[in-house]
Request: fold
Amino acid sequence: MTLRNWLAPVVVAAAVACRRDGGGDPLPPGDYTPRPTEHDLPVARENRERIRGDALRRAKVWLPPKAPITAVDFTRNPEGPGDFPTDAVVPCRFELKSSGGRTPKFQCIAPGGDVLKVKYGHNNPETFGEVAATRLVSALGFGADRMFVVARVRCFGCPSHPYPKVRIFDALRTDWSRAVDFEMAVIERRLEGLEIEGGWGWPELSAIDPAAGGSTRAEVDALKLLAIFLNNWDAKPVNQRLMCAGSAPSCDKPIAYMQDLGQTFGPRSIDLEGWSRTPVWADPAACRVSMRGLPWEGATFADAAISEEGRLFLAGLLRQLTPAQVRDLFTAARFTEFFRNRDAADVDAWTRAFESRVAQIADRSPCP
Reply:
């Protein structure tokens, strides 16, 4: 890959990221020493595969939602530890650290040592799609990270357009004498718990055993159908997590969930036309779903026949959402601010596309 290709996202970000220079304002008082956080389940290497296999066999992919679906307010940020109100101005100190992926993002340290992962920019689909997708998935009872829309992230020391995939460029452009304000930004927090290394591929969900405490076939099929509903084609194992929500090291409450939901509502990500014309069913008569026509052919997502129980399960969840809630979902995620949509798509059009895809699942003959 050429240097030009590596820098392309940086150049585009520079053109469309909404930011203001905070000038020489001083860094607010506080301790900006990064607070260490344990993310991985402590497992000896020789026991890793055994513990991972056992956790996957007992994994849940769905749990009853904390709030009734009909009562969910999609205009509000998720509640829980470390949450932010939507009007928050969040100060932080830039942390020079590499990260995966090619979309604009950076890490910074809030007063008290909390390390924040920030995604930004009008051209970055994860700034929009990941907000809507995680809120929807979580409201339905499936696992998801938490994404917080805030008024502004004020980053002290940040380059104007951080791009940690090429760390040396951020290092050369870091300026500790000023702050940069990122106004089109979201803060990501992981689902609480400890991760078992390795993620999971979609074929591995066949190992889940309801007799061992794992999810039912209907719940697993509903998760597959939800991935199709969202067009979540970036289905590499690293983008799905096997999380231990209970005590370590026994991992008494394993959860398997779609972790990276940034490449959704496409296939070209936040692409109304593409999302509208891509059918839910590859073979409606057989209730077969496929991602072969999507980028990377859906990575690990293999063609699957959805059971009638799975179809009814997801349809029953989606049908509880009101049109007003769906509209709020896209409004709060600022879909019309995505640079490809600013003159081409309104919230009502996204709402109609959403309801059309729900109808493809709910308003059809039973699956064989």
